[in-house]
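Q: Sequence in, structure out?
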Amino acid sequence: MDKAIKIFLKINITVILAVVLFSCENPISVINEMANDDTLSCIMADSVVFYRSDSGLIQMELRTPRMVRFENEDEIMEFPLGFNMVMFDKNKQKITEFSADYGKSYGRIGLIEAIGNVKVENTDNQQTMYSDKLYWYQKEKMIHTRSHVRIISPDKEIEGDSLVAKEDFSEYTMYSGSALLDVEDE
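A: Exactly. Output:
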């Protein structure tokens, strides 16, 4: 009787081991997909300095403590810890500086969304714009916000609750605004 129990246990242990070892098999297509680099959902980098140039001339410099690039057809880059972007003219002179606490770039459609302490400073026009949220449509070269906005220049300060502007502030429309202007006495 003792010998029958030992044989029974050996058979059961062998069957259980066989089931465990051979039941964990993945098809080769699943293994190849897991090893493929194209399955990465995002790439994250810290202390990023990014330059965009044309014909060897730097047009833009972007600095961010953290950038997350999502691998999808929309070409989305996120700046969860904020960003600072400087744009240059052909003579390497700074023309615009753009910063915010958070940013998201939609590369395929050419849109940058900036949130929190948004600041756009144009050195040509000597104007600085402040807002809580801003959309920059790069292809159309337009800026849009439906948040409180303030523009300060040497001779005036304008505030409103929304704005549509050319990216260089050469033309803009502000809604529900007020202004403080320097007026010369005659």
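Residues 31 and 64 are 36 Å apart (CA to CA).
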